[in-house]
Amino acid sequence: MKYSIETHDLVKIYDNGFKAVDNLNLFIEDKTIGGILGPNGAGKTTTIKMLTCLIQKTSGDAKVAGFDVSTNPDDVRSRIGMVPQQISLYKDLTVRENVELCADFYNVDQRIKDKKIDDLLDLVNISYAQDKYVNQLSGGMQQKTSVVASLIHNPEILFLDEPTVGLDPTTKRVLWDLMLELNDEGKSIILCSHDMYEVDKICDSINIIDSGKVVANNTPQGLKDQLLKTKEETNKNIRSMILKLEEEGTKGNEEKINHLRASLTDENEKVTVMVSNITDEMVEAVRDLEVVTDAKHVGNGRLNIDLKRSETSVNHVITAILSNGGNIASIKTNDPTLEDVFVAITAKQRTEIKNGRN
Ligand SMILES: Nc1ncnc2c1ncn2[C@@H]1O[C@H](COP(=O)(O)OP(=O)(O)OP(=O)(O)O)[C@@H](O)[C@H]1O
Ligand SMILES: [Mg+2]
């Protein structure tokens, strides 16, 4: 498999002795959008800075577009674009002058330079402000200028470090569409973000970094499925421990059993079904199901149901509604979100560090 990013035991120790990146093994497939998530201080920006040759690694290896960042930094630099977390534009130059400076830095052909700048400014709707000085721009306008500057030399790989922080919802969408469009054209995108919706929406894969290491890696859906599976397995183990204690029947076990019961998580699933021709009989039929712990018609055909989680629970609900002549317009389950995954994984990491297992 070809990777846009490939690191082997990459380490960064800053001059003050702090290890910000700790034997990082990060692989992002070529021509995909790879998301990097992690708590504040996890080492994301430090990693991006090493990959974009802004700072030097302490040890390990890193390749970008197949080139080693230490031995072939010029090959790396010519193939990458970077939208940094801290915008680095010249404040006393105009938008256009900033982009022109970047174009000259990368030796963009003078014959196509002006047209290229026009096209990119248009692409992110910032042409109207091209003669404004950067220090007169809003945060979002600066961010758009930074994106244009990063794309001027048609890079193979685009790094974006929290590019949509503070942007309004419409401007965010402009940037998301742009990332998807660039990816369709065959570019690899590396996106650091704390916006779970954004990452879920546009990334093909996600690496969660914590304390300078990769602690999870999967597709967005894969991460959510993994969380559900882990929870189900944990609950299964807890239930079998409870059963064992109950069978033992030893005095004093009640406290342990209650403690274990309290640690069962998300045993129930909440499902919302919209039924266009809902009747009391349908609600009753759903409520009577063995797998249903509660069902309420909350108006406008919206049926809120609490279910015991199992592979077939939702099937039973659908069958009960259909067999009573119901028309199901939509079903929504409360499956885990990427935010749930993030919180669960980083909390687990905290506990392991506290217990000295990391
Ligand atoms: N120049 C530096 N010298 C010493 N320590 C640094 C330096 N730059 C960053 N650090 C430390 O390295 C760690 C990782 O910082 P980094 O900026 O890579 O985190 P991050 O994952 O990008 O966080 P955020 O989500 O807040 O942007 C932090 O503890 C930070 O204080
Ligand atoms: Mg950062």
Strand order of the largest sheet: 7-8-9-4-10-11
Strand fraction: 15-25%
CATH topology of the largest domain: Rossmann fold
CATH architecture of the largest domain: 3-Layer(aba) Sandwich
Shape: globular
Averaged pLDDT: 92
Question: Roughly how many Å apart are the termini?
Answer: 30 Å
Helix content: 40-55%
Unreliable runs: none
Small molecules held by this entry: adenosine-5'-triphosphate, magnesium ion
CATH class value of the largest domain: Alpha Beta
Tally of separate helices: 12
Q: What is the number of E strands? A: 15
What structural category arises from helix and sheet content?
Answer: alpha/beta
Query: In angstroms, what is the radius of gyration?
Result: 26 Å
Q: How would a textbook summarize the main sheet? A: 6 strands, mixed
- Please identify which CATH superfamily of the largest domain we are dealing with: P-loop containing nucleotide triphosphate hydrolases
Instruction: Give the topology string: H per helix, E per strand.
Output: EEEEHEEHEHHHEHEHEEHHEHEEHEH
Count of all domains: 3
Protein name: Daunorubicin ABC transporter ATP-binding protein
GO biological process, one term: doxorubicin transport
Domain ABC transporter: 5-236
GO molecular function: ATP binding; ATP hydrolysis activity
